[in-house]
Each structure stands twice: as structure tokens, then as C-alpha cells.
């Protein structure tokens, strides 16, 4: 099974939210970096992942971590590739 990166796209009015913190730009950057690295990974927009104040948030599946404060697609993919290599 290929990894799926679920990026929270929730926007809350009057409060911090992942979409308000740049998650849609992050999703686009992840897709571009995944293509550049020729990885068979999928990026999906997700409903709220319940950590709004720490966003943008991302849940990697299967069995991957929940990441908070994701703003740099290159750093996110580097971290996930290292983690999945150890497993």
C-alpha cells in the first residue's frame, strides 16, 4: 500500500485553522515534491484533525505519524521517508 498524506483543510472562522495557516499551499507543494521525487504517494485533503492551534496538520497513513506545524513540504517528506525507512 502506498502512503497517503492526509492534510487538514479545515477553515474555522474567527480562530486558528489549518487552512488559514497555509495547509492548501502545503498540499500543493507536497504534490509537487512527491512528483519531483518520483514517489507513489497520495496527498488528500482531510477534514479537521483536531489540533487547529498547531496547524497545518498532517496525518500520514498507513501507520505514520501525525505532524503539526507543517509548512515546508521538503522537510515533511524528508522526515516521513526517514521514519518509514526505520520500520
- Terminal Cα separation, in Å? 14 Å
Cα radius of gyration in angstroms: 12 Å
- What is the mean predicted local confidence, pLDDT? 92
Given this structure, which CATH class is correct?
Answer: Alpha Beta
**Would you report the number of β strands?**
4
Q: Specify the number of helices.
A: 2
- Proportion in helices: 25-40%
List low-pLDDT spans.
none
Please write the string of helix (H) and strand (E) elements.
EHEEEH
**CATH architecture assignment:** 3-Layer(aba) Sandwich
Topology (SSEs and partners):
Elements (H helix, E strand, L loop, with lengths): L3 E5 L14 H14 L5 E5 L11 E4 L4 E2 L5 H14 L1
Parallel strand pairs: 1-2
Antiparallel strand pairs: 1-3, 3-4
Helix pairs in contact: 1-2
Describe the protein's architecture and organization.
- The chain is 32% helix and 18% strand.
- It is α+β, with helices and mostly antiparallel strands.
- It has one domain (4-86): Glutaredoxin.
- Strands 2-1-3-4 form a 4-stranded mixed sheet, with helices on one face.
- The longest helix has 14 residues, at 23-36.
- The protein is globular, with a radius of gyration of 12 Å.
- The relative contact order is 0.26.
- The mean pLDDT is 92.
Amino acid at each position: 500500500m502506498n502512503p497517503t498524506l492526509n492534510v487538514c483543510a479545515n477553515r474555522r472562522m474567527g480562530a486558528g485553522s489549518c487552512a488559514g495557516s497555509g495547509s492548501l499551499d502545503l498540499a500543493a507543494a507536497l504534490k509537487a515534491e512527491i512528483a519531483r521525487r518520483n514517489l507513489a504517494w497520495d496527498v488528500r485533503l482531510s477534514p479537521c484533525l483536531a489540533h487547529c492551534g498547531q496547524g497545518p496538520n498532517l496525518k500520514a497513513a498507513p501507520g505514520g505519524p501525525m505532524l503539526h506545524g507543517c509548512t515546508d513540504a521538503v522537510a515533511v517528506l524528508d522526515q516521513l521517508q526517514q521514519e518509514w525507512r526505520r520500520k
